[in-house]
Amino acid sequence: MPATITxxxxxxxxxxxxxxxxxxxxxxxxxxxxxxxxxxNDNWNDRPHGRRGxxxxxxxYRMGLFFALASDLMFFVAIVSTFFVxxxxxxxxxxxxxxxxxxxxxxPPILWLNTAVLLISSATIEFAxxxxxxxxxxxxxxxxxxxxxTRRALPWISATIALGFLFLSGxxxxxxxxxxxxxxxxxxxxxxxxxxxxxxxxxxxxxxIAALITAFSGLYLSRQLETRQxxxxxxxxxxxxxxxxxxxxxxxxxFGQ
Amino acid sequence: xxxHFNTPPAQPHPASTTSRRLRAAVFSTDHRVIGIQYLVxxxxxxxxxxxxxLLMRIxxxxxDWPLPLHGQILPEDYLALVTIHGTVMxxxxxTTAPQAGFGNLILPAQIGARSMAFPALNAASFWLTAAAxxxxxxxxxxxxxxxxxxxxxxxxxxxxxxxxPGQALGMDLWLASIALFATASTISSIxxxxxxxxxRCNGMTWDRLPLTVWGWFTAALxxxxxxxxxxxxxxxxxxxxxxxxxxFLPNGDLVNGILHQGGNGSPLLWLHLFWFFxxxxxxxxxxxxxxxxxxxxxxxxxxxxxxxxxxxxTTLLIGLLGILLWxxxxxxxGLNPFASSAFSISTMAIALPAAxxxxxxxxxxxxxxxxxxxxxxxSLGFVSLFITGGLTGPILAxxxxxxxxxxxxxxxxxxxxxxxxxxxxxxxxxxxYWFPLITATRNHPGRLLSEPLGHLHFWCTLLGAYAVFLPMxxxxxxxxxxHYAQLTGISxxxxxxxxxxxxxxxxxxxxxxxxxxxxxLATAQxxxxxxxxxxxxxxxxxQTNPWQATTLEWHPSMNPFPPLHAxxxxxxxxxxxPCQYQSNKIEISFLPQWExxxxxxxxxxxxxxxxxx
Lengths: 257, 613
Fold this sequence. Notes:
The complex is a heterodimer of chains A (257) and B (613). By secondary structure, chain A is mostly helical. Chain A folds into 2 domains: 11-48, no CATH class; 56-255, Cytochrome c oxidase, subunit III, four-helix bundle (Four Helix Bundle (Hemerythrin (Met), subunit A)), CATH 1.20.120.80. Chain A contains 6 helices and 2 strands, in the order αββααααα. The model of chain A is unreliable at 32-41 (pLDDT under 50). Chain B has helices spanning 14-26, 31-61, 75-110, 119-138, 169-198, 211-242, 267-301, 308-322, 337-349, 351-365, 374-391, 393-396, 399-405, 409-439, 451-477, 499-505, 508-538, 599-608, and strands spanning 253-255, 258-260, 580-581, 590-591. In chain B, α2 (31-61) packs antiparallel against α3 (75-110), α2 (31-61) packs antiparallel against α17 and α3 (75-110) packs antiparallel against α4.
């Protein structure tokens, strides 16, 4: 069986195993000595083979990516909590009045458009990702009967790259619009956070585009089908995470000020 | 592909082979090589850090002694010494060596894996760490010297370049170095977590994982939570320094005679972000040592680990509570008193899992007549230092007591005993225990470190550690402040001794004793270095399982010495939890994890079983 196909039957059949002292009565074998397990059917032969077999590498890379994204989430949690703390921090002036100098930044409306673009790009990369795992096509490609999944995924990836650049240029326009109103990074507390959050997110998205371009060229250059699947899958999950993150950050900037 | 039957393999040019082999050895993706690289980096760092601490001790009692090639140690030099000593020791020794060094060297073998999950990322994170160390050390040689705001880098002084000589370029390099280190640690922790979850061998269920692996696992979880918060804080501080923002800069701050208008930032915010990272960081440093201590005490006492599952739970619980108590570093920083109470309670709560661990260590060894090999001695030393340092923890957890003690040497004594000394004892135990695995190559089996020298090293180090850090409690209680370059000799108003000098002059004899003890402690480590160098060359060859260990890193095929072909390596599977020691039987007193069920038991089962055939 090719290493890239999920077997249709993922559950193992209960069959009589003589080597496990199964005497065929249908009851639990007296011992599960081949595993040395602690009884109660603690038998690793019966467990789903998640760690071995097809998609072993894919699942490993996916898990690594998810841990990286968890760590990245903490990065943004730190910045967002700073936002809330600075928003509610004031000071006493010379007359002993408590002043809070938070001046909310008016968010340029083009960000709504950008958000829509990012949502659409999340959909396009999901189409690309699903195409990489359509089983009959995977089989064809694995057997060398053309490259159906690569052919299907390529346009979606290209569309996502284009939409990603569109989003980044939209963000650039938003920054220009604010700069025309003389609102810069260093202007006040609220503008610090607007530029910081959008800027850091843009850097992340830039990395995402780099990942998409890597996946795109990987579809041409990589000779292993599983590597191609991993490249597209990882880039897609990263892209989804950045989209979701943007929704939260945008909601914070739009409604949280 | 057509196989080449008759063409001989191409012979590479000899000169290029050696250079390629060198490059392959240096930029290796083999986890064992990377682990050793991390350990060498930590060894270099610990030597630098120790020398810096000796300079500080010498300066405290003989302030007029001129440092060769440098001259008088000025107060700002002293602060730079404090900063670099703390940074090097905490990041590049206590985080790097247990978690990344032994984590790479031993962890894959202990879970029955042939490699880490992402070998290339692993190598990348080592080289990022090395770059971070070089960046940090290079800050000494830039104009103004190294940063002087301590390893905690509190703003606003760390945010304003004119606040001190090292706070311009030196501080930037410090921040860059720590940012690199945080990135490297995060990558390495992602690798560790994925390896533990995905690469375990057959039968290695979660409750059969050795406690060392649980220590590495929890520390890696803490790393991915904590280090990215530090990275965010560093980003904000760099913006404050260079982009004109004021995240941490308060309004109207007078620094060095210059009024900084600033914005409406809060310096306290940095403390929150930093200690949200900083407190998990000390658990990252100590958790692998705790796991190792449990395993080694059981190994050398030939006992099972007392309450194995509870030890897994307490490891995770210490990790969980470790991220909830950062505020106890901020009792004197102007925290809301109600917040102080909450953090005080969570701090005292962590004494419970820690006490459970101590109980298990004592119960494991109690009346077991252990064999006192050097790794065992260092593990017992770990327990001793952990208890001694831990007892002052609940004292410092009281906000009202901490008001007085926080900025004194009492705190220095506390964290050096429980984190630095206990952590180093864990590292020594690991080095003496795993030295055969470090030194084994394809050509010869591993070597053992010399036992007599090890005993000498242990007793001198234990004595030195207590002699240095126990008296610091007393000088701290007498009011000796931290971070002060000079205790007495600064004249007050009217030419007399300053009031602080009068107060502290009584501690001078004790401080002199601490300095002598510190020199003794550092000298004792030369015994270890000598032992290391001589045993690397001509130490006794070890057997495959010299300590009668039960964990998988001693499996014959995990040892790099017997050069097996890939097709000859047996499948490794695990049949039981570690530390199955039976002291009542003489012929087989221990049962490694990889050993299939005993023949005798098999026969009994066969006799009672009715096979259909």
